[in-house]
């Protein structure tokens, strides 16, 4: 293709907007594609794949569970102290960063209550007493009963106080 054909294609508005849309979609994909947890800040610069034995523990931030470090310290995001990551019964660390795991004491302290999900009729009826009135401040049409026009209206709703 020569330069003249490219300029002719770019002068067509639909093709130009289509190319801009495709470029925007590509940039959005580049920016927002990645890990679903929002980032890969899981360990310091050097990642070690060796086994520390039974006494090794993983430390994490209570506010940023994606932070996982081999030794205690401060969270690189918020500066809070890292806490030891609890392991499940088999000894491996929870893989799902979106999972919430509470001990029995923590669940009691948080007053967590659960129930079995089922399809039922409502068992509680609420009766509310009151009157429904139109908000006259939102009404904007006024029909004149005499000839002429209203140039300035000093009252906007019933009950508004008027002074001389």
Distance between the termini: 81 Å
Number of strands: 3
Strand line-up in the sheet with most strands: 2-1-3
Order of helices and strands: HHEEEH
Rg from alpha-carbon coordinates? 33 Å
Portion of residues in beta strands equals under 5%
Average pLDDT, rounded to a whole number, is: 77
Low-confidence stretches: 37-48, 50-54
Mass-distribution shape: flat
Indicate the structural class: mainly alpha
Measured as a percent range, the helix fraction is: 10-25%
Characterize the main sheet. Answer: 3 strands, antiparallel
Number of helices: 3
Please explain how this structure is put together.
- With 164 residues, this protein is mainly alpha-helical.
- Among the domains are: 3-32; 37-118, no CATH class.
- Helix content is 21%, strand content 4%.
- The chain is built from three helices and three strands.
- The protein has helices at residues 3-10, 13-32, 104-109, and strands at 59-60, 68-69, 83-84.
- The protein has a three-stranded antiparallel beta sheet, with no helix packed on it.
- β1 (59-60) and β2 (68-69) form a beta hairpin.
- The longest helix has 20 residues, at 13-32.
- The N and C termini lie far apart (81 Å).
- The relative contact order is 0.06.
- Mean pLDDT is 77; it is low at 37-48 and 50-54.
Give descriptors for this structure:
single chain, 164 residues, mainly alpha, 21% helix, flat
Q: What's the gist of this structure?
A:
The chain has helices at residues 3-10, 13-32, 104-109, and strands at residues 59-60, 68-69, 83-84. The protein is mainly alpha-helical.
